[in-house]
Amino acid sequence: MVTLTHYVRDIWRHRDLVRSLVWRDFCTRYKQAVLGFGWAVLYPIALAAILWLAFEVLQQGPTTGKPRLLVYYCGLHAFNLFASGVIYGTISVVANGGLLTRVRVPTEAFPLSAVLSSLFDYVFASAALVGLMVWYRSHVVVGLNWVWAPLAITGQLVLTLAVVQVLAAACVIARDLRYGAPILCQLLLFLVPVIYEVPAVARGAWRWYLLNPLAVYVDCYRRALLDNMPPRWSYFLLAWAVSLVCLWISCRLFANARNKFADVL
Q1: How confident is the model at residue 42, as a pLDDT?
Q2: How many domains are there within the chain?
Q3: Cα distance between residue 116 and residue 109, in whole Å
Q4: Residues 159, 4, 237, 84: what is their CA dihedral angle, to the nearest 10 degrees?
């Protein structure tokens, strides 16, 4: 836990730099973009519509009683927070190579700023989710269990940061990872409950499936917002434990690799 403690202390000491990097990444992402913030809403809506068309109109979808468009978008909304952080975070160190070789800065700030800047997309896309929940309000259960959704998102951010730190360090050596990260996210889309739902009681293969912390977070997010249900506690606590261990490991790996960044870049 020593490396994780140093990581938190260094980031807190340079919190103003992290804040500036988050704002810069946010502004750069939408610079000279015709739709600007609209891309954060357009992409998940378009993808949710494609999934709805493919699995509900063209092919008989699963019958759960909830509108499939609402189910798809709610799952995508949580998953895209992870995907956005991974795609932009993988190239965060390489993209800041010029700054890294000129100024002494904590390299941990680059992956962290990329992950945190993905929250802007999440907030903008939340408008569409709220609209769908209002439109299909008869299928949405409102209650106190909504409070678990932010905890699921926080755990997902911890997991995302762990993955991003490893990929960002590896991308300095293997630059083609910048193309591999989007492919990885597309594959993971089918390994988390976005286009399908986890049964109320997980049996058989579902028990192994829920060992994937990302799947647990997406499932918890949708259960909380649409069904007013608490997390699957055993899997949820395990997901948090795995995420924290992964973050600790990624901090050690990143710390060992950062000494070589300046030479390679």
Answers
A1: 67
A2: 1
A3: 10
A4: -10
User: By mean pLDDT, which of 101-105, 158-162, 167-171, 206-210 is the weakest?
Assistant: 101-105
pLDDT (average), residues 149-156: 95
Please answer whether residues 252 and 2 qualify as being in contact, where contact means their C-beta atoms are separated by less than 8 angstroms: no
DSSP string for 70-124 = HHHHHHHHHHHHHHHHHHHHHTHHHHTHHHHHHS---TTHHHHHHHHHHHHHHHH
User: Is the separation of the CB atoms in 66 and 226 below 8 Å?
Assistant: yes
Q: Which domain holds residue 101?
A: 2-264
Sequence-ordered list of residues with C-beta below 8 angstroms from that of 76, at least 6 positions apart, any chain? 44, 47, 48, 51, 194
Cα 24 vs. chain centroid, distance in angstroms? 19
Q: Which of 184, 169, 185 is nearest to 92 (CA)?
A: 169
Lowest mean pLDDT among 16-30, 71-85, 142-156, 227-241: 16-30
